[in-house]
Design a protein that fits this description.
This protein is mainly alpha-helical. The chain has helices spanning 2-30, 36-44, 70-75, 90-106, 114-139, 144-165, 169-192, 199-212, 215-238, 251-276. The protein is 71% helix and 0% strand. The model has no long low-confidence stretch (mean pLDDT 90). It binds zinc ion.
Amino acid sequence: MVVVWLAVLGVIFGSFVNALVWRIHEQAQLADKKGKVAAKRRQELSIIKGRSMCPHCGHELAAKDLVPVLSWLWLRGKCRYCGTKIPDSPLVELFTGLLFALSYISWPQTLQGAELATFAAWLAIVVGFTALIVYDLRWYLLPDRLVFPLTGLAALQVFVVAVWRQSGEEVWMSVLGAAVIFGLFWLLFQISKGAWIGGGDVKLAVTLGLLAGTPFRALTLIFFASLIGTLVSLPQLLNGKNGLTQRIPFGPPLILAAIIVVLYGTPIADWYQHLVLPS
Ligand SMILES: [Zn+2]
């Protein structure tokens, strides 16, 4: 039963992700503008205080327009007032719901005491991750305003678990994990002058490494991210001409790999050990 509620909660947060991503992007466009009009617009776009509105005509949306997935199906993805297609996708809502449910089913720790708090923090991280995926797919960018709060959450999670288990070793292993991914990405960024890997990916690396928890898991994360990235770009590569000119953001594969490693890192590590040291 809990899993159903969590899935529904995830769908609702997915709806929030759609609005969040659009607002952060609009605010970024406004960043350099001055004057009254920009100030008013800024207020309308406030993530906490602003009302939901159509991105095209600016009409305020009523509660019936905001029911996740169902409103989209009913209105076929168009604004009720101006008829323009709205970029918000119900896929984002369903994806977040699925991740919430999967996280509950596959959560590697207990759900007691401080570990319940880390589960809640993980769900918040999942919401941020989904927003980053959508942002990167649309605008080829991982905005600091999403990346840095996630780094804070991941660091807090590591710290809380360490205090709860009275073990400093886990903190050092997580920091080492972060150093492995950050170091590698930073090097790739420097060598290629930003051609192979984006600056946003380098900043995100710290969060990914902290979540991975150990250097081995950090390397596993990079392996899965490369695998997913290759699989996703394969159809384009095989298609010929435009294959290599089309940019493929690396953020989404990295984030999917992080989710895999957080939820399934232990069985993966066990399997690998079995492979290397057969008993
Ligand atoms: Zn509209």
